[in-house]
Task: inverse folding
């Protein structure tokens, strides 16, 4: 990003303002403290990039270094001042955000959406600028259709982006949220969630003639559905005279162990 002719200047922190187009609003406190400690001992090793404004400077790249320098009690910071347009500043800020190591899938999708909205770009144009395929960008943007509660789980690291895309198949928001909570509680893999969602949606599409036998009381049918949703497997309740049994289906040792663990956790 820096050209060989760029001149490094020592700029007063008081004259610098955050980039108004910076998509990242939260900076992890512990990591910021670590960087501040490093700056106290070694200084800022890589200059930040600034853009000259009427009232001083806007940060283009390097807001973490700027904030950490403030924490370290520094008065100046090494910087390269570049002449660039608002659009260029906006794009560089978003691209820098996309290069973060701790970026999660939803934040990545939000960055693509911001590039499209702020710079009036198409999915194809964003893909070309970032060296991605258009289907990849489209697939990531789908995550922004999730309910806020579920995007929150992804941002918190409780679910992956692949979990989120699988949940979108459910369409119905309450079912989506309920399934997401169950997947987190029972630590479902993406593959298991895909299987569960597939079974759930295929059941909804069955013609009425394949519905549970009308001979079963509605209470039992309802409990079968409830247990299936709760434990993520097929459940059958049968009764005969004064006796009955509940059957939980499993097709692998992994599913068997998951069920046992779920039963034990409730005992």
Result:
């Amino acid at each position: 990003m820096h050209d060989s002719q760029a001149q490094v200047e020592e700029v007063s922190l008081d004259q610098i303002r955050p980039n108004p187009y910076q998509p990242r609003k939260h900076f992890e406190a512990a990591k910021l403290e670590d960087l501040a400690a490093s700056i106290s001992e070694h200084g800022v090793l890589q200059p930040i990039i600034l853009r000259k404004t009427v009232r001083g400077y806007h940060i283009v790249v390097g807001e973490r270094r700027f904030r950490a320098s403030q924490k370290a009690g520094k008065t100046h910071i090494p910087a390269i001042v570049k002449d660039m347009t608002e659009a260029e500043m906006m794009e560089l800020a978003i691209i820098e955000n996309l290069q973060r190591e701790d970026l999660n899938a939803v934040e990545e999708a939000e960055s693509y959406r911001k590039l499209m909205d702020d710079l009036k770009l198409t999915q194809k144009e964003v893909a070309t600028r970032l060296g991605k395929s258009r289907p990849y960008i489209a697939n990531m943007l789908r995550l922004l259709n999730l309910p806020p509660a579920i995007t929150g789980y992804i941002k918190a690291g409780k679910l992956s982006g692949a979990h989120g895309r699988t949940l979108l198949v459910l369409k119905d928001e309450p079912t989506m949220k309920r399934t997401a909570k169950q997947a987190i509680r029972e630590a479902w893999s993406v593959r298991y969630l895909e299987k569960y969602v597939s079974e759930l949606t295929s059941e909804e599409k069955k013609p009425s003639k394949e519905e549970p036998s009308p001979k079963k009381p509605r209470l039992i049918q309802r409990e079968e559905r409830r247990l299936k949703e709760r434990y993520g497997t097929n459940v059958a309740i049968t009764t005969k005279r004064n006796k009955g049994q509940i059957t939980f289906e499993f097709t692998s040792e992994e599913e068997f162990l998951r069920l046992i663990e779920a039963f034990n956790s409730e005992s």
Observations:
- Residues 210-214 have pLDDT under 50 and may be disordered.
- Strands lie at 8-12, 16-17, 48-53, 56-61, 76-82, 235-240, 243-248.
- Residues 213-267 form one domain.
